[in-house]
Specification:
Length: 323
């Protein structure tokens, strides 16, 4: 099959000449000279292997072949305009898709409100969410399945990622309602682990930070239960089988049903939560718009309520003074 190469400008030139039937007028509309337009049409006819216009010194008329091409050209140009308009919308982030990967505590507590506000400004953008553990979040961003990730702490492969801190997430003590944490006050880590302790599984960021806090307090963690999912930890605690320590952002996952949540000190443990992006990779416009939106998002709105009150700020100040 013979291949015919015609660009959009040639289609546009043909359509203009077919409309006004004058080389001079069509050339002016196209910003070129009459002879240049005549040569362009001649090349087009040669490439197509047919005559498109009958012309003499005064008149320009479409041939039957030209009439047929004119109808097809209208469809081609309309499709091109629509496609370019769609692409412009994509570039302007009016359309497109952004994939976000994040810790369950982030996707359940932080992202819903941020996404809701983002979609007010970008209503036609599709947002997909992958909730996973920290290492899986990093991997999803690295292999391109996610545009942006939300994880705790700096990724191990810093040369392949940028990390933008968003907030410090405070660890709290969590116990069954009316149980060992019934007294409304701050509890120390040593007090907490004197009770049967429900720990997150080894390999999770919460477990690593929990063990680090215990070492800082001068003892080793010996959990009664180890679980992989936050909901399981909450259910065991609510059933009176133990207590636990969790970042504040995990509380929406637990729904705080039948639980006492208290400040946890000595040490006051703060988990850094931030946004990660693969270095050297251009973000799609919608993802770039989401990142820019986050950069203007009020930091205080990211924080759980118990981290914006005066009690927490005072405790944090006391902890800093002691250290």
């Amino acid at each position: 099959m013979k291949r015919i190469n015609i660009d959009l400008f040639e289609f546009q030139a043909f359509a203009n000449l077919a409309e006004c039937r004058s080389f001079r007028v069509a050339a002016e509309q196209l910003g070129m000279s009459g002879p240049a337009l005549s040569r362009l049409i001649g090349r087009l006819e040669k490439r197509l292997g047919t005559r498109l216009f009958d012309r003499d010194t005064r008149n320009v008329a479409l041939t039957p072949q030209g009439e047929t091409l004119r109808a097809l050209t209208g469809r081609i140009l309309s499709e091109a305009v629509a496609a370019l308009s769609e692409f412009e919308g994509y570039l302007a982030a009016r359309r497109g898709r952004v994939v976000l990967a994040g810790l369950p505590s982030v996707t359940a507590s932080l992202l819903p409100q941020v996404i809701r506000r983002f979609l007010v400004a970008y209503p036609d953008v599709d947002v997909s969410i992958l909730d996973a553990l920290s290492d899986q979040v990093v991997t999803a961003v690295l292999d391109g399945r996610a545009d942006l990730g939300f994880a705790a702490g700096w990724p191990d492969r810093e040369d392949r990622f940028s990390f933008r801190p968003l907030l410090e997430d405070r660890f709290v003590a969590v116990g069954p309602a009316g149980g060992p944490l019934a007294e409304i006050r701050s509890y120390t880590w040593r007090e907490l682990v004197d009770h049967p302790f429900v720990a997150m599984a080894t390999g999770t960021s919460v477990r690593a930070l929990t063990e680090a806090a215990c070492v800082q307090a001068g003892f080793s963690l010996r959990p009664r239960f180890e679980v992989a999912h936050l909901a399981t930890a909450g259910a065991l605690v609510a059933a009176g089988l133990g207590v636990t320590a969790l970042p504040s952002l995990t509380l929406p996952v637990l729904h705080r049903i039948s639980l006492d949540v208290r400040p946890l000190v000595s040490p006051l443990l703060l988990r850094k939560v931030g946004m990660i992006q693969a270095t050297g990779r251009t973000l799609p416009p919608a993802a770039a718009a989401f990142r820019a939106f986050l950069e203007t998002y009020p930091v205080r709105d990211w924080l759980p309520e118990d981290q914006t009150d005066e009690t927490f700020l005072a405790e944090r100040g006391n902890q800093a003074a002691e250290s």
